[in-house]
Amino acid sequence: MSDLRAQLQSTLGDGYTLERELGGGGMSRVFVARDNALGREVVVKVLAPELSASVSVERFTREIATAARLQQANIVPVLAAGTSGGVPYYTMPFVTGESLRALLARGATMSLHDQLNVLRDVARGLAYAHGEGVIHRDIKPDNILLSGGAAVVIDFGIAKAISAARTQDSAALRADDGTLTQVGSSIGTPAYMAPEQAVGEHVDHRADLYAWGVVAYELLAGQHPFAGKSGTSQLIAAHIAEAPGPLGVRAPEVPRDVAALVMQCLAKNPADRPSGATELLRQLAIVVTPVEGAGHAPAARLARPSSRTPHVRRAAIVAVIAMVAFGAWRIIQRPAAATDTPIAAVTAAGAASTTAPRTLVVLPFASVGGDTANVYFAEGMADELSSALSKVSELQVVGRSSAAAFAGKRMSAQAIGEALQVGAVLEGTVRRAGDRLRVSTQLTDARTGLLLWSETYERAATDIFAVQDDIARAIAGALRVTLTNGATDAATKGPGTDDLEAYELYQRGVYFYQRRGPGLVRAREYLEQAIAKDPRFARAHAVLGLTWIALAIATDVAMIDAIPRVLAEGERAVAIDSASSEGWAAIGVARIYQHRWREADEATQRAVRVDGSNPSAHQYRSRLLLVTGRVDEALTAARRLVELDPMNAVTLGYVALTLSIAGQHAEAMAVANRAWEIDSTVSAVTSYALLALHDGGQVPVAVRRAESVMRAAREPTQISGGVYVIGASGDIARAATLTQQLAVQFARHPRIHSALTVGFLAAGDTAQALTAMERAADRFEIGVVNSPLAHRRYDVLRGSPRFAAIVRKLGLDVALFTSASGGRPR
Q1: Known active-site residue 169
Q2: What are phi and psi of 283, to 5 degrees?
Q3: Is the CATH code 1.10.1740.10 the one for domain 355-495?
Q4: Phi, psi at 271, each rounded to 5°
Q5: Can you state the percent helix, strand and coil of the chain, rounding each to 5?
Q6: 730's torsion region: left (phi>0), alpha (psi -120 to 50) or beta?
Q7: Pick the CATH number of 497-617 from 3.40.190.10, 1.25.40.10, 3.30.720.120, 1.10.238.10
Q8: Rounded to an integer, what is the distance from CA 314 to the centroid of its chain?
Q9: What pLDDT was estimated at residue 288?
Q10: Strand 40-47 vs strand 87-93: parallel, antiparallel, or unpaired?
Q11: Taking CA atoms, which of 396, 511, 555, 814 is between 20 and 30 Å from 713?
Q12: Could you count the other beta carbons within 10 Å of the beta carbon of residue 412?
């Protein structure tokens, strides 16, 4: 033992000092070391001898690099990997707290509210990792750490790295902790193994969902689903052949929908489990649990229309509690231009209100038959219907992002209607086999639960456009509205192409565009293929333009390189179809990032005018107004945006910032918390939410979340948002250190100068902040657009001639932004 430690210390050198050894498992020995340069503790894990002897060090290191890419708030990242005396090791941050296993072992009690939060956190980590192509393969309480009120998962990708690096086969051995560790076996823990993993078959992300189900069952019921089984063979046999007792029977206090979700995860056949971890999040998002100390009854439940004071998600309760202190706010269903309804009230759509009779949500249609290719087709069909119906002047249709939050949920139309404040819910299924198409749809009154209309269509697959038209017309009849808007017949406008193959490629592109992240590259490829099939497909051109903007915001694509592509695609779209709202939006956002404000103003106005129900049009219109200092107008546009898409985390993050700049801090914090609850992994959510919380006075919460963001962030502007909160809270020295690290780590990143502007402001270095800001302006970086100059963090610069010169170069109103208020409402 001392030889290994001495060898490891020698390998690590002066940069680290081994301090102590922690209890290891079957796969590794675990040490805590001090990072002498940064003054922090890290964990060093060394592969167990029986594993390292049969593992290719080169392949292990190569595989571990894949795991090291994972940077998300609920994943403890791999920092480095190497070898010591021929034995592979890897390092990761030291997390203060305890494992879920330790908590369960000591019999500690945990409220249902906290239990579900743990399960949500683990699901968030899984959703992110699976999106990056990484499967954990060993989800268990031992690998879930509880720290700072959050759950984080360790050892992502390690089991895969060991498996892929095997050099020989031998019999399976069981370590003391019950983990199968030896070559020739399935790396993992028998108590949490999916059946297909236990028998050595190929596994995909659904094996992690099974393990999540076992952990969830154990946490909620207080016992393992196969309690009483002992030994590897008994456990594996139970996973393969035995059905666990229903969770709802063993833990009756657990909401029925949660119990059903956990049992679905425990399905023997992977195809019978949820489609992915995002589905877990979607279903858990609707569960409401009492906030500790708020005086609620102990049982969690789903929102139900029979309740006198309806509840929606946990974040909605937090928002409502915050709002009570400032008065009873209610949702008012009237045009945005005439309302000052608090946005928090719209997003916390549980307050009692009278739902307008002609509001509608089109849920993503389900694909029947198991063909993955048809998922795009089914969801695309729902999008087409939503788009057609949204153009009807007598209808208000909820945006796609909010509709997607309820996809696949076993919820009543009344519960969905209550959560989204709509009067009707349209849902359907699509089966496509060969050249035949079968579409089944039903429209339900969300207030009474009564079926308004249903129909099944069986046609040739080439008749898809006609089927969509028929459905739209039937819905209009059921709701007693006309499918006309002026002289335009919204239902028969068509998809913009007669080429079915181009249309399907477009649907696939939209599918990945809407999910952002690494899928944006695939979105671009599919949309380019659609355009190659039909060069006059206006909608494909428009969405391709918006995809290029998303690539420049979320990936390493430089904005200065993306803008010409965005502009070209947008202009091509409107040249083909002057009523292309997405095309005008693409032109508008390109002009915004070019700082050509007059042209951006014209294009965004046109985008809203040709389709007032398009969330993207309102989003870019509001952004333009905020950046140019028209804060009150920006807020009006933001309110309309939330009405259209009330559960879009990015939208809510941006709206929280707008409210904060407008000085409406109570509402800003409520919306920020709502956005954070929906998705705390996206830069636009975290950066804006942190600012809103800090500006509103929730400094400790903002700092705690900032630390979490900085640990998980993978790009500089997201990190700089956390750095700003650290500095603004008073720790200027640390902010300065973090900013210098940022400059070194991301020296060549296309958004580094925008990030450094914020970092130097946090560190109180106004001279360097102005230098970074000048360089960002020269390179058309996202800074001024994504961090509006009206925000008070620029107040320290307003008296500087250099700041005035930057404002003048950006084409903005110098007098407005160099005034004491910086354009904020007084």
Answers
A1: no
A2: -75, -40
A3: no
A4: -65, -20
A5: 55, 10, 35
A6: left
A7: 1.25.40.10
A8: 17
A9: 53
A10: antiparallel
A11: 511
A12: 17
Determine how β-strand 144-147 pairs with β-strand 98-99. Answer: antiparallel
Reading phi first (left if > 0) and then psi (alpha if -120 to 50, else beta), residue 449 is in: left
Instruction: State which amino acid sits at residue 559.
Output: M
Query: Which of 53-59's residues contact partners 24+ apart within 8 Å by CB, and which partners?
Result: 54/166, 54/167, 54/168, 54/170, 54/182, 54/183, 55/88, 55/162, 55/165, 55/166, 55/167, 56/165, 56/166, 56/167, 57/83, 57/86, 57/88, 57/165, 59/164, 59/165
Q: Give pLDDT tens digits for 226-262.
A: 987 877 778 888 898 888 888 988 888 888 889 999 9
306 C-beta neighbours (distance < 10 Å), count: 6
- Residues 720 and 710: beta-carbon distance below 8 Å: no
Instruction: Extract the residue ranges of the chain whose pLDDT is less than 50.
Output: 1, 167-186, 290-341, 344-357, 482-493
Look up the CATH number of domain 98-288.
1.10.510.10
Q: What is the four-CA torsion angle of 686, 692, 698, 701, rounded to 10 degrees? A: 0
What is the pLDDT, as a whole number, of residue 371?
53
CA–CA distances in Å: residue 241 to residues 196, 199, 238, 244, 266? 11, 12, 5, 10, 12
**CA separation (Å) from 185 to 189, 506, 516, 580?**
11, 43, 37, 56
Which candidate in 14, 35, 114, 138 is catalytic? 138
**Residue 611 has which token pair?**
């389709």
> Quick check: 522 and 550 in contact, CB under 8 A?
no
Residue 89 host element (H or E): strand 87-93
pLDDT of residue 187: 57
What is the structure's pLDDT at 1?
44
CA distance 339 to 638: 12
Q: β-strand 28-35 against 80-84: which pairing, if any?
A: unpaired
Residue 491's Cβ-side half-sphere holds a number of Cα atoms within 13 Å equal to 17
Q: pLDDT tens digits, residue range 315-348?
A: 332 232 232 222 222 222 223 333 344 554 444 4
| CATH 1.25.40.10 domain position(s) in the chain | 497-617
User: What distance in Å separates the CA atoms of residue 74 and residue 714, rounded to the nearest whole number?
Assistant: 13
How far, rounded to the nearest angstrom, does the alpha carbon of residue 46 sit from its chain's CA centroid?
Answer: 33
The pLDDT of residue 815? 94
Q: Where do you find CATH 3.30.200.20 in the chain?
A: 2-93
